[in-house]
Amino acid sequence: MNINNNLEVPIHKVQRFEDFFRLFPERPSFYKYQNRIIETITTKRNDLIIDYEDLLAFDCQIAYMLRNDPESLLEDAVKAFKNILKFLGGKLIDRDYFVRISTRDRESLLKVSLKDISSSYLSKLIVSEGKVIDKKAPEIRLEIGYFQCLFCLTEFEIFQHSLRVERPKFCINPRCKNKTASSFRPLSKKSYYYDYQFLTIQEGKKKIKTVLTHDLVDKVNVGDVIEVTGIFTTDFEYSKTAKRNNAFKGIIVVNNINILNNPS
Ligand SMILES: [Zn+2]
User: Fold this and answer.
1) Which distant-in-sequence residues (6+ apart) come within 8 Å of 49 by Cβ?
2) In a domain, 108, yes or no
3) How far is the CA of 167 from the centre of ligand 1 (A)?
């Protein structure tokens, strides 16, 4: 095997985000994101907001990857955020941490007008503007369900992927033969939940549904004009009816919100 033929250089994405957080200078010897992370430690926050243009200037390869595969790259960014937070002497106090993407540039690569959103943007990171025309009541969703087998008392978790709660089909204890769906007890106190809310925004005649989770829930009101950063996807996982039809609606899973004007 000729190793020299292998031109694929692995990209250490978490490390590249760490470098960005540690070394991006706002001005000489002033490290913008290191300072922001120190701030999150002192204010006990769990989120870090980054400007997309900063990342683009510092590491355009990672910035493009973030735009094209945000689901995976945001996970890497969160790992890097937690690593730097610990490196700077902070303690992880929350279960969930977030890296939220903002943009200052009116001409940003990420900007898409609602009327131009189409299937070519699926799974991409986008920034769109609109007026909030509908806000549903917040819900609480199960993220990880804990269950106990009533035969052998083994406890285990099931990660929840969809709207319908997934319950155990069999016991994970290899010596237990329990396969009776009704003989597993949900352990509510040990399970993980998160806040969840649908919001509809409109620009011109085009409306689009968005999904807010965690701390973003109830951050805006009907009538607000907002800019959302999010991942454009189909409503497959977010609608009770979508799974039966091969006809989906687009939906934005929101990563960050900026309120552009806030009429009182
Ligand atoms: Zn069992």
Assistant:
1) 36, 99, 100, 101, 102, 256
2) no
3) 14
